[in-house]
Write a structure and sequence with these properties.
single chain; alpha/beta; Rossmann fold; 2 domains; 7-stranded parallel sheet; binds magnesium ion
Amino acid sequence: MADDQTRNAPPQAVSVDAPPQAVIFDTPPQAVIFDKDGTLVDFERTWSLPSVRAIRAAAHSPAAAAEAADALGLDLETGRFADDSLFLLGPNDACDDATRHLLDLVRYREVLDAESGRAVAPMPGAEALLDLLDGRGLPRAVMTNDSEAAAIRQLTRLGWLDRFDAVLGFDSGHGAKPDPSPVLAAAAALGVPAAACVMVGDTGHDIDAGRAAGMRTILIDPDRRYPGLAADIVVDDLDGIVAWLDS
Ligand SMILES: [Mg+2]
């Protein structure tokens, strides 16, 4: 009974500095499901300048460019996205719906895909984490609200495509985060029960999807932008996950 009560207790957000894995898992995680942007891929370096160029190339007018950038949560002058920007949180089709009267969307996607495909940059610590997962034989997937094709293009550019066992986008047939369906589909693709998976992400959508799927969750939040999220652990960066897995 005590064990059941412990198992059913709500997770506590705890510092990675203190708890070993046993605090979070009865047994070590058997698979990892990653968000892409801001988690494995440096969001600003990958998307800021490409987005500015794509909007300017595809807008029907300068005023339309400004309105589209505003709808997406992008500052056209600085290239910075707001923390709650639609571009950051929404699936691509929601971004398209918000801007289709302002942009030539075919041209926008063409420029954005080409430019971001060239600009894509890894987050620090990603290689070390993938090496650790390789060493442990832990399967892993990417589930992103970006498109599956863009994710595959970026992972290929980074030389990582064969380091993931599954890649799912918002358009892979299972919906988008924060719905749990696509992360459950990722777990199914890996052949690992959801409860034995850990979901790693940098926004509330990732943590909400993972929790709703019955997974343990790790939030990467160096600036503590999401103090109210009930992630199982909060880390500053991917090195923090390596440290936790080694604990
Ligand atoms: Mg993200």
